[in-house]
Amino acid sequence: MPKQLSKHISPVLARRRQTERLAVHPAEPSDGPLTAEELQLAVRNHSMPLEALRNDVTPPGLHYLLDHFDIPAIDGNSWHLRIGGAVERSLELNLRALSRAPSISVPVTLECAGNGRSLLKPRPLSQPWTLEGVGTAVWTGVPLAYLLAQAGVDDDAVEVAFTGADAGIQGGVRQQYARSLPVDQALRPDVVLAYRMNGTQLPPQHGFPLRLVVPGWYGMASVKWLSSIKVLSKPFAGFQQSVAYRYQQDADDPGTPVSWMKVRALMVPPGVPDFFTRQRIMPAGPVMLSGRAWSGHGRVTRVDVGIDGTWLPAQVAQPPAPFAWSAWSLPWVADPGDHELSCRATDATGATQPLDQVWNYQGMGNNAVQRIKVTVE
Ligand SMILES: Nc1nc2c(c(=O)[nH]1)N[C@H]1C(S)=C(S)[C@@H](COP(=O)(O)O)O[C@H]1N2
Ligand SMILES: [Mo]
Questions:
Q1: Same domain flag for 253 and 270
Q2: At CA 292, angle to CA 286 and CA 293, rounded to 5?
């Protein structure tokens, strides 16, 4: 803007510019074609192919991936974790010390809070997920509560902040990826500092040498490449907490924080795909429709499968752990013609998936039902 015009900026516009500078997304939501920046993010990060919904535990390499910045270069031999802040005694632990501490293994379904974003109209410009930003892994490591007990959390502590070793710029703000948890969440017995994924060493892209895993919360809470943990007596105000990961109506809306995963079911697309359109083609006759369902708010109590708009209850299996997905299935006799299949989960709180997504500015927590078009020959 020319200098002589700057004195004419109203306070409202000035505030607006300030929020724009801090906005999570570099541009307003768009109805236009996919941008080069979205494509760049989509090829760095990746979703889980839906056929991997067949597995209780997502095989290596098929778990979804979301890295905001670059994978940091970390030497496992010299790396160590610092635990400090509002504690009686600060700790410094290397991988050796962590491997000698008590360990747990927890099967956890993680889903990116932005899953489904690119299906919104208009679509927020960020990682352009369709439906598959999800996966289930068995995470092995030290319970966070064990180490916090060793450090001795002060009585006035309110949150625990986790900082990753990865750095970059988002919304014009230079930062290391960092998030916090309320103390009561940090002290849950199933929150784990994981050094193994599915029984093998944590891969570089998933947080080597150590990451946090918070069962039931959207993925952003599970900070990778941990470098420090700080107990706080005031709420954490880092970018990924106070600007990103909020349910907002527009850039000026302070919004509400994103936390627990909403209820969702996904189906293994039946038949075979057309290479380019991914449209499904299958033979007539009996077929077992199947998939997985999960929720951060309690057990999945039912899954309904929609066949051309008629809902039928599927059989839902017991999940292997409270925050790991449940398998569901429904036999169907496919008759020739074009059909639309969908699935819809309900959890123990009675929450169910919306048929049409309620829009929000960052494209967070989109759990609208999946729809699959199939041609039965
Ligand atoms: N340090 C760090 N931790 C991070 C991220 C990141 O970019 N940096 N991405 C978060 C987000 S948004 C998600 S959805 C999950 C993805 O975990 P995954 O890549 O292991 O599936 O990691 C979270 N932890
Ligand atoms: Mo995410």
A1: no
A2: 125
192-240 pLDDT, tens digit per residue, is 999 999 999 999 999 999 999 999 999 999 999 999 999 999 999 999 9
- With a 6 Å cutoff on the Cβ, whether 112 touches ligand 1 is yes
For residue 209, is the peptide bond before it cis, meaning its omega torsion is within 30 degrees of 0? yes
Spacing of C-alpha 263 from chain mean position: 13
Q: Closest Cα to atom 9, ligand 1: which residue?
A: 67
Q: Which-ligand-closest: CA of 365?
A: 2
Residue nearest to atom 2 of ligand 1 (CA): 224
Task: Please choose, from the candidates 314, 313, 304, 298, the residue with its C-alpha nearest in 3D space to the C-alpha of residue 348.
Answer: 298
Count: domains in the chain: 2
* 13 within some domain: no
pLDDT in tens, 150-185: 999 999 999 999 999 999 999 999 999 999 999 999
pTM of the model: 0.94
Alpha carbon distance 116, 1 (integer Å): 37
Which domain, by its residues, includes 318? 264-376
| Tokens of residue 275, six digits | 């290479």
Domain containing 309 — which CATH number? Answer: 2.60.40.650
Q: Which atom from ligand 1 is nearest to the alpha carbon of 166?
A: 1
Q: Using the 3D structure, point to which of 257, 276, 310 is the last residue of a domain.
A: 257
